[in-house]
Amino acid sequence: MAYKTVNPYTNELVKAYPDATNEEIETAIATGDRLYNQWWDEPVASRAATLHKIADLLRANEDELARIATVDMGKLYAESQGEVELCAIIADYYAEHGAEMLKPTPISSRNTGDAEILHQATGVLMMVEPWNFPYYQIMRVFAPNFMVGNPMILKHASNTPGSAAAFEKVVTDAGAPAGSLTNLFASYDQVANIIADPRVQGVALTGSKRGGQSVAEVAGKNLKKNSMELGGSDAFVVLSDADVDKAVDLAWRVRIYNAGQVCTSDKRFIVADNLYDEFLKKLKASFEKLVPGDPMDPKTTIAPMNSKRAKDKLQGQIDKAVAGGAKVYYGNQPVDLPGQFIQPTILTDIDKDNPEFYDEMFGPVAQVFKVSSDEEAVKLANDSELGLGGIVVSEDAQHGRAVAEKIETGMVFVNSFLVSLPELPFGGVKGSGYGREMSQLGLTAFTNEKLVVTAQEPDWNNPAGGLAVFK
Ligand code: NAP
Predict the structure, then answer these.
(1) What are the start-end ranges of the E strands in 312-412?
(2) Does domain 235-414 correspond to CATH entry 3.30.450.20?
(3) At residue 463, does pLDDT exceed 80?
(4) pLDDT at residue 299 in the model
(5) Do 37 and 91 form a contact (C-beta atoms < 8 A)?
(6) Aldehyde dehydrogenase domain spans which residues (predicted)?
(7) If DSSP codes are grouped into helix, strand and coil, which group holds residue 136?
(8) What gap in Å lies between CA 264 and CA 257, rounded to an integer?
(9) Which of 72, 128, 385 to mutate to test the pocket of ligand 1 (most atoms within 8 A of CB)?
(10) What percent of the chain has pLDDT above 70?
């Protein structure tokens, strides 16, 4: 049984789940395909009430859902509660606006008749999701595609099966028809078979570069549309005119949230030289105050990492960085608790030859760099194989905006933490993947953008039509 909940705070095996059978997979695809065809005869707006109901059930069961997520992957209970609320916000948003956003888009054309783009469903989708936001990652794909009319099959991370099952139950309890979202404890091979099935029309993956490359390869081979939301090594740029206290107040929070296991959590802090020493001193003071402990305890402020594997990987990266010349400014000491803890750590002096320079450190480790100009800051921020998000801090917001424009990522926030909301597009460039989730862009990620031109009769004089030759 590959799918297991092992509580990352107690290290206890909570529950193991049976692997999906091939029969279950066939049933899931067939049920989804039937639903896809059924939904063609139902207006988009008819699904809004169910999606609102899903939001209501999420809110009504917030505490229990939050507990399940925290036991699955260790995040602070209050963070899990916030995640459940965010899922409800996303569901409500698409329920309220989805039908309007999916109305045909007219095109002004010199052609005779009316040209318009219809935004139509394409078929069953496969979604492959990670453990770090075990509900929100599903909702980002589920809510828009439920409105569109694309039934979905979910393969969640092997360490968050409790959250996967709980999410599926909310959808079922809200009265969504069978096949709307089917959770399967599927193997990689089974996922590849699902993607290859002609009834399946697309795959959305959020995860690592390694996972993304494997799934995109299968999707490419089978010519299936796909979106890839991959890792990030986002820069947090502190410009020379920033207020250090405000910058640090933002910096420690974005780095520590979810024990640093956030794709858009800033991992590289690029600080103007006039502020560098003070920034480091104050960042250290903030990290020192963090209290590791039981993520269910409201007094705990730094959660364990999601698994032993994740902790070992990050510790290995820190060791490699240090062996390669990085200095430990703070942290990197063992935490005397049973869970999978990494002490919040600050690394400096990471130069380009360091073996970790281009790696994403997915946990509570801040790499801090010193630069002497805006240009140098932008150059360093862009010297990355990844391009997901970023933050720029300046007392002059327009100065920050000018620098933000030059950063090669999918999202940049000036003087604010990077929020994920249904109306804002989410996604990256370069090794961080392609495609966008949420917003109008996410809603149409897996639609058929179908051109329909409606005329009363042909315009034989239309110079663009070769048919005019036969007059
Ligand atoms: P991962 O190993 O790629 O796992 C993500 C999901 O992909 C899991 O469900 C995993 O299943 C599955 N998977 C991996 N290889 C697969 C394959 N060959 N076939 C089918 N499924 C496969 O990612 P992770 O390391 O756990 O997650 C952290 C990464 O996700 C970080 O790099 C982070 O930055 C990124 N992330 C990106 C975003 C974004 O929106 N851009 C958001 C959150 C996280 P198993 O669990 O069974 O291996």
Answers:
(1) 327-330, 345-348, 365-371, 386-387, 390-393
(2) no
(3) no
(4) 98
(5) no
(6) 3-452
(7) helix
(8) 11
(9) 128
(10) 99
C-alpha distances (whole Å) from 329 to each of 28, 291, 360 are 52, 19, 19
For β-strands 413-414 and 365-371, DSSP reports them as unpaired
| pLDDT tens digits for range 128-137 | 999 999 999 9
Distance 196 CA to ligand 1 centre (A): 20
Residue 358 in 3-state DSSP? Answer: coil
The C-alpha atoms of residue 365 and residue 259 are separated, in whole angstroms, by: 9
Pocket flag, ligand 1, residue 132 (CB < 6 Å)? yes
CB 459 within 8 A of CB 111: yes
Over the stretch 277-325, which tens digit does the pLDDT of each residue have?
A: 999 999 999 999 999 999 999 999 999 999 999 999 999 999 999 999 9
Q: What is the pLDDT of residue 468?
A: 63
Pairing of strands 365-371, 327-330: unpaired
Helices 136-148 + 48-60 axis angle, to 10: 160
- Determine whether the shortest distance from the Cβ of 72 to ligand 1 is under 6 A: no
Residue of the CA atom closest to atom 13 of ligand 1? 211
Delimit the domains of the chain by residue range: 3-230+432-453, 235-414
What distance in angstroms lies between residue 208's CA and the mean position of ligand 1's atoms? 5
The average pLDDT across 254-272 equals 97
Q: 191: helix, coil or strand?
A: helix
Two tokens at 91? 């569901």
CATH number of 3-230+432-453: 3.40.605.10
312 Ramachandran zone, left/alpha/beta (phi>0; psi -120 to 50): alpha
